[in-house]
Specification:
The protein is an alpha/beta fold. Helices cover 34% and strands 26% of the residues. Strand 12 and strand 13 form a beta hairpin.
Length: 384
């Protein structure tokens, strides 16, 4: 299946000279997955709500300030006849919800993660939430400020944060859109006073005041199709996964998690995805894949289905080299295992994370995989 029948010519376009205040209002009023940015009619880039939220530009600044070629997470450009599996992979690795689609080097339309998921819904009965969800999610306390929420969203590259009370029970969820909506409303209502002081007070507002409650949840036993249908119906990017008690958090499943599952293949080499590939400096994608395979091969009794490597750049630098955080997460026949670390430059960060990953993998040694189930899952996905 290719994306020719999934891509659409209907999208919102803004010029690089558009005021950021207008862009913020567009996200508030229409909740688009992303905006196509053009310069005199020529494609320039895609602007997401997350980028707008995490930016520090004023409302009077122009869109051009956020579409510089040097920015991280460049959005992939897809061919109209791209394979749906490759399109899903590129959206995930580009950390994008929307990507431009070209035909004969001309902008034809856009494709979204939602569009891909809607097109493959019937295939998602083969996967359960337990197969693709993320365990041990980042959470917030009810009294934590919005500033802390923004930092968590930025550092972990996520779009939602479960909120727990003092007993650790789930009470709400805060998303990128919730924060953007609150900031826009507060900015619109500010007519007097010091702007810096107003901004600081906004960051101190407890997340309890803006969180969504009650929370949309799902279970580990639910199929990915059921979870996706629930997300699409409510226009949510993710759901909290709970146990027998709806107040206890087992993890989070997002549309991105399901898109990532669409890229699972029975290829000769391990399926590895890298987020923020633009941060790679002295290390290559091939080297990263080989290093993870080397760790996996040491423990052949443990089957690794998929690896996700994510890099994040901090503001701190040493002799011009940025401090990078790296997280490696493996989905194995035993469950998920991860390792994380920091270093100056992507290669140093990756080596620290890989060392931590190997120590954690040791704890999973001796596990036997369910090859029959894995084969059924992959054969179903390969029907796409």
């Amino acid at each position: 299946m290719d994306i020719a029948d999934i891509a659409t010519t209907e999208y919102i376009e803004v010029d690089v000279g558009t005021r950021m205040g207008k862009v913020r209002s567009t996200f508030e009023n229409g909740n688009p997955k992303g905006l196509i940015v053009t310069n005199d009619g020529e494609y320039e880039g895609v602007l997401s709500e997350r980028e707008v939220l995490q930016s520090h530009v004023e409302d009077d600044a122009k869109v051009a300030a956020l579409t510089k070629p040097s920015r991280n997470d460049p959005v992939p450009q897809l061919d109209r006849h791209e394979d749906v599996r490759d399109a899903a992979r590129k959206l995930v690795e580009g950390n994008a919800r929307v990507a431009p689609v070209f035909e004969n080097d001309q902008l034809w339309g856009v494709v979204s993660g939602d569009g891909i998921l809607e097109a493959v819904l019937e295939n998602l009965d083969a996967i359960t939430v337990a197969d693709v969800y993320t365990d041990d999610p980042v959470t917030l306390g009810e009294d934590d400020g919005i500033g802390k929420a923004i930092n968590y969203l930025r550092e972990h590259g996520i779009s939602r944060l479960p909120v727990v009370n003092e007993n650790g029970y789930l009470t709400g969820v805060v998303t990128t859109h919730d924060i953007a909506d609150f900031v826009i409303r507060e900015n619109d209502s500010t007519t007097t006073g010091d702007r810096v002081g107003d901004t600081q007070r906004m960051l101190d507002v407890p997340v309890y005041d803006i969180m969504n409650s009650p929370v949309e949840t799902t279970s580990l036993e639910a199929t990915a199709r059921e979870a996706v249908e629930q997300m699409l119906e409510s226009d949510y990017g993710g759901l909290v996964v709970t146990g027998d008690d709806d107040r206890t958090i087992d993890g989070v499943i997002t549309k991105t998690d399901v898109l990532r599952a669409l890229t699972y293949t029975e290829r000769e080499h391990m399926d590895v995805q890298i987020t923020n590939v633009s941060l790679l400096d002295t290390i290559s994608r091939e080297s990263i894949v080989q290093s993870i395979e080397d760790v996996s091969d040491k423990y052949a009794e443990m089957q690794v289905f998929h690896a996700h490597v994510r890099f994040h750049e901090h503001k701190e630098k040493l002799r011009g080299t940025p401090l990078i955080a790296c997280q490696i997460r493996l989905r194995t026949s035993k469950g998920q295992v991860a390792g994380s670390g920091e270093g100056y430059g992507a290669e140093n960060a990756f080596r620290v994370a890989l060392d931590k990953l190997e120590r954690n993998v040791l704890e999973l040694k001796g596990v036997q995989s369910d090859e029959e189930y894995r084969g059924q899952l992959l054969r179903k996905l390969n029907e796409l």
